[in-house]
Amino acid sequence: MIEINGNTLTLEQLSAVSRQSEQVSIAPEAIERIKRSRRTVDEILESGRAVYGINTGFGKLVDVHIPPEELRQLQVNLVRSHCCGVGEPLDEPTTRGMMLLRANVLAKGFSGVRPVVAERLVQMLNAGIHPVIPSKGSVGASGDLAPLAHLALGLIGEGEVLYKGHRLSAAEAMKSAGVIPVELEAKEGLALINGTQAMASIGSLAVLDAASLVKAANTIAAMTLEALRGSHRAFDERIHSARPQPGQSRVARAMLELLSDSEIVHSHENCGRVQDAYSLRCIPQVHGAVLDVVDHVRKVLEIEINSATDNPLVFPESGEVISGGNFHGEPIALALDYLGFAVSELASISERRIERLVNADLSDGLPPFLIKHPGTNSGFMIAQVTAVALLAENKVLAHPASVDNLPTSGNREDHVSMGMTSANKLRQIIDNVNKVLAIEAICAAQGLDFIAPLKPGKGALAAYQKIRASIPFIEQDTVLAGHIETAAKLIRQF
Description:
single chain; Fumarase C, Chain B, domain 1; Fumarase C, Chain A, domain 2; 19 helices; 9 strands; 56% helix
């Protein structure tokens, strides 16, 4: 059971809830904060004074004062009208992440909702009721309005959800699970749809995946280095101490560990090669730079998932309700664009190593395209072509979305972050990088077989053995697509 309080949620906890269906509860002190925040809203309603987000219209309609008898309908209308998402639905882990993050925001006690709103959202999450949330429609300005509106729609028992593997109406699923839909009161609809939780959910899972890919890239690069009889000297600690970039030093140390106890390195101690190509020699400099970006983006998201990002915010101590812009997705948009083109570099350098493995002019004795009888067999020729195709796609996807701007909402929301576009692109980039690294992994394993019985370093050997437990040595041409998919899953465990 993971207890949320609005302040201490970690990316690993988010992943556990999103991907392993860990159960969630709300800390008692958070419930008390929520109650205090709601009392402030109730006092404003009793006073009759006009306060944005409580008894006024929204966006361009901020100057319209809503009478008390219409406030409940206002909240329902707000949720329904903002359900304008299009495109493929978000996957279940992302949706679960959104639900968790939205509940965590409410737990901070700045949103002015009743405790039942947060509690019911957690109840849905624990019951496995996941609103169908289209992936497109947010510009990341007043937060992820459309995606969060689709989430809120499920909470009030409308729209569609996924429940026990079936897509059905929210009302039907909630009745089956014994979850009572929320009847929204003043401020609660707005508190549910303002925020950055869609892009933050995607980004949080993506940064964890990116960290996993850097680790996998190091391991696979070690396999390739051994298959190509590359030098270990480029990872000497003295080199990296002379340029103390943190990621670079960490990767160099990891490479030395992966390559330790190598039999292959001793087989070419007296060869005439002076230097390796950059794709081998500069692994710490390239992979390390990516690792530094991953660390930076992680820090951005660790702050974001424990932040109050709705609007207006309620401050019970002073009784004030203050409008601001914490829903603006710029910090995430910039970070996810940055991560997108950084992670793309893992695939870029990996493809160059793949080329060296399959190209007999570059591979130091390996057969053309890593196959015993080239000519009759094409071997891994087209696997490298696939890697190039994925690089071309990443080049387009890595173009930043955050530099764009188109005003919305009658020009009141005149600068937007496009952070959801950054997030959606990043997910595809990471999937492409995973596939490129998978191609390198099966090529490197094939190359190591041609060097046997000499054994690579212990880390590279362990990775090779994992590959060979599921993917055989390729004796003659076969369909490689399935092997690439298998390797893509395997390398996430490296």
